[in-house]
Amino acid sequence: MAKQKPRISFEFFPPKTEAGMDKLLNTVNPALNELNPAFFSVTYGAGGSTRDTTLDVVSAIAEKGIDVAPHLSFGGDDENSVGNLLDTYRERGIKRLVALRGDRPSGFGHSTHMVYANELVAFVRERHGDHFQIEVAAYPEIHPEAESYDTDVQFLKGKFDAGANSAITQFFYNVEAYFYFLDRCADAGIDGPIYAGVMPFINFDNIQRFASNTGAEIPRWVCKRMESLRGNEEDMQKFGVDVVTQLCQTLLENGCPGIHFYTMNQVEPTQQIYSNLGLA
Ligand code: FAD
C-alpha cells in the first residue's frame, strides 16, 4: 500500500515592523507556499499583545486563498472579546485554529487565573460547532509547569475530549521522547494525530534560550558541536540543517503523521530541510 504523504505545516509569528510584514507576506509566505503545505499558522502574543497583527497576517494570507490557522488564547481577555475575534475569523473564511492557554505575559503573576486550553476548545465548540478544525499543543518532554508526566498526558486527553481534532508538539530534538510520548498518549486513550513540532537551527543562541524556557532538551553533542563551529555561521547552519533533516527523517520513517515547522519567518533552512527529505 502506498505510504500516506505526511502533513506539513509552517508557523509564522506576526512581525513588529512594516518591513518585516512586507517581507513575510511578499517573500517568505509565497516561497514556502510553493512547498504546498497543508496550512500556515500564525502565533498570538501572550495576553493579546498581537491581537491586531495576528489578525492582519492571517487575513492577508487567507485573502490569497491559502489555508491559515490563527493561534488563539484567552490571556486576560473576556468571553466577549475572544468571541468577537472568533466571529471575525469565521467571517474571513478561517476554518482552522490552534487553541492554547498561552504563555504568561511578563508581569502576570503565577497566581493569575489563566484559561486552560481545554476550556478554550470547549468554548469554540459551544459557539461554532464543528466549523473549526482545532489543533492543540502537546509536550513530548512535558510542559514545564506540569505537575507530573501523567497529569500532562491526562490534560492533553482533556483537550481532545473537549473537541480538539489533533495536536502539534512543542519542538524537541530527542526523537525517543516523542515516540515514548505517543505510546503513553495511546495508553491514555488519545486517538487523534499528534504532529511533531520541529525547530530548525536558525539562531543557536535564541534556540538555547527558547529550549530552556520550554523545557526542550538540546542534546549535549549538538551543543558541543555548535560551540566548536562558533564564528563560522555557514558551518553552523549546515550542521543544524543536517541534524534536523536526520530528526525529521527518523520521525517520518517511524510513523510520525507529519511535521509542523517553526520557521521563525525564514525561508531557509526550512526549505533546505524540506528538500533534503525529498518532500519537494
Ligand atoms: P494547557 O494545555 O492549558 O496546559 C498548561 C499547563 O497546565 C500544563 O502544565 C498542563 O499540565 C496544565 N493543565 C492543562 N489543563 C489543565 C486543567 N484543566 N487544570 C489544571 N491544569 C491544567 N504561546 C503563545 O503565547 N502564543 C502562541 O501562539 C503559541 N503557540 C504555540 C504553538 C504550539 C504548537 C505549542 C506547542 C505551543 C505554543 N505556545 C504559544 C506556547 C504555549 O502557550 C505554552 O506552552 C503555554 O504555557 C501552555 O499552553 P497550552 O495550550 O499547552 O496549555
Q: How does the helix and strand content classify structurally? A: alpha/beta
**Biggest β-sheet, characterized?**
8 strands, parallel, barrel
Overall tally of domains: 1
Give the averaged pLDDT, no decimals. 94
Strand order of the largest sheet: 1-2-3-4-5-6-7-8
Tally of strands: 8
Oligomeric state of this protein: single chain
List bound small molecules.
flavin-adenine dinucleotide
Q: How many distinct helices? A: 10
Percentage of residues assigned to helices? 40-55%
CATH class: Alpha Beta
The name of the CATH architecture is Alpha-Beta Barrel
Low-pLDDT runs of 5+ residues are none
Q: Give the overall shape, derived from the CA principal axes.
A: globular
Over the alpha carbons, how many angstroms does the gyration radius reach? 18 Å
Could you please say which CATH topology applies here?
TIM Barrel
The share of residues in extended strands comes to 5-15%
Please give the alpha-carbon distance between the first and last residues.
21 Å
Structure notes:
With 280 residues, the chain is an alpha/beta fold. The protein has a single domain, classed as TIM Barrel. The protein is built from ten helices and eight strands. The chain has an eight-stranded parallel beta barrel with strand order 1-2-3-4-5-6-7-8, surrounded by four helices. The radius of gyration is 18 Å and the shape is globular. The model has no long low-confidence stretch (mean pLDDT 94). Bound molecules: flavin-adenine dinucleotide. Flavin-adenine dinucleotide binds next to helix 4, helix 5 and strand 6.
